[in-house]
Amino acid sequence: MEAVPARARGYVACVALLAVLCVLRLPAIRTPWWALALLAALYAACEHVVRRRLSGTCTFYPVLLAGAFLLPPPAAALVPLPAALLARVEQRPGWPRRVWRAAQPSLAVWAAARVHWGLGGRDAVVRCDFPYALVPAGAAVLAFCLVLAALDGGILAAAEHVPVRRAWRGLLSRSLAPVAVHGLAGLMMAVLWRSPYGPVAALLVLLPMCVSCWVFAQYHRERAAHQATIRALVQAVDIKDGYTRGHSERVGQASVMIARELRMDDERVEVLRFAGILHDVGKLGVPTRLLRKDGALTPEERRIIELHPEYGHEMVRGISFLGEARTAILHHHERLDGSGYPYGLAGGQIPECARVVAVADAFDAMTSTRTYSRARPVEAAVTELERCAGTQFDPRMVSALVRALDRHGWHPAVTADETPRGLPPQQPVAGSRSGTPR
C-alpha cells in the first residue's frame, strides 16, 4: 500500500502519543542506562540480521522481552527505538511506517514490563526463583501479545477498512505460541544477565534463537515458492481462458469458507484453498478455441473438455505439498448420483475434498457473468444448489456454504474482460454450457 490513508495516519499518531506518555516518567526513576543502551543496540543488530539476512520473515522478540524483565517500564519502552529509527523503510511515505515500527513494540514492551514488575517479577529474576519467576514472566508475555494483537488489528481496520471484529480475529491465538517461546528465551537472558556471569552469558541464549529464526525463514521461503508455483499455474489458466478470469481464486475462497464451516483443521483448510485455486488447471491441456467458443459444443468437443480434470491431475501429481488437493482436482466434476466425470464415482466414493470444491465451483460459476450466461443472484444460486443437493452435490457441503454465506456474505464479480452482450438465457447448474461445466 503506497499511500497511507488519513485514518491510518491518525491511528499511528495516537499510538505514538501513547508511547510518548509511557516514557514521560523516565527522569523520575532510577534507570541503568548502560543496560538500556546495550539492550537497544543488541535489538537493533538482531533486527538488522533478521530483516536483511532472513528476509524479514520473523521478528526477534527475546531481546525486547529481556528488556521488559530487566528494566523499569519507561526504560524498557525505549529499547525498540534505535532499531525502528535506523531500519530502512521500503515504501513511501516512510515517516508513518517508521513511527509505527517504533511506537507499537514500545507500547507492548511497556505493558509487559509493567505487568512483570507489578507481580514482583524483578525480585524473582534477581533471586533466580524458579518456578515462581515463570508466573510474572508468563503474565508479561500475555500482556505483550494482547497489546501487539490489539494494535495490529487496529491498524488493519484503519488502513484497509477491514471490519474491526474481522481485523482482530485470530491475531492473539496465532501469536501467543511463538511469542511465548521468545518470552522464555527472554527470561533466560534476564536470569543469566543478573547472574555472576553477566551480559556475556546472556548473549548465549540468542544463538539457538537465531538458528530457530533461520529455520523459520527457510520455511517461509519454501512456502513463498509454493505460492509462486500456484500463481504461475493460475495465471496461465487465466490467460488461456480469459472469460473465467478470477474464477479460480473465488473457488478457493468459497472452498475455504466451506472447510471452516465444517471445522476442518488449518492444514486441511489450506489444502482445500489450493484445490479450489487449481481445480481448473487442466484447462491448459484443452484447445483454446473450445474454451472460448460462443456456441453450443458438439459431443466430441464436450468429451475433450471433460478431459481437463485428468489433465490437471497429471500436471500437479508431482507437486507433493498439494496433498489431497490433487484428488480434488481430479474428481471435482463427479456427481453424487454417479453421472459425473471422469470416472462416474458416486456417493462416498467421491473424496470429501472434491465434494467441497464441486459446490464452491458451481456456486461461483452461477454467480459470475460469462459469455454464455448472466450472473445469478446469490439467493438464486443457493436455491439451485439446494435443489441439486443429494443428486449432484453433497448436502453437507451445500449446507456448510449456506451457513458461511449467511455469516460472511458474498460479493460476486464479472469474470470476463468485458460484460458480454446478447447473452443467452440462464444455463443449467454449475455454469454449464450445453451441459458442460466450465
TrEMBL record:
SMART domains in UniProt: HDc (SM00471)
Ranges for region Disordered: 412-438
GO molecular function: hydrolase activity
Transmembrane segments: 6-26, 33-51, 63-87, 137-159, 171-193, 199-217
Keyword set includes ATP-binding: no
Domain (HD-GYP): residue spans on this chain: 222-417
Superkingdom of the organism of origin: Bacteria
Gene3D superfamilies: Hypothetical protein af1432
Domain HD positions: 244-366
Keyword terms, alphabetized: Hydrolase, Membrane, Transmembrane, Transmembrane helix
Any Pfam family matching the protein: HD_5
InterPro entries xrefs: Cyclic_di-GMP/3'3'-cGAMP_PDE, HD/PDEase_dom, HD_domain, HD_GYP_dom, HDIG_dom
Database matches in PANTHER family: CYCLIC DI-GMP PHOSPHODIESTERASE TM_0186-RELATED, LIPOPROTEIN
Official protein name in the record: Metal-dependent phosphohydrolase
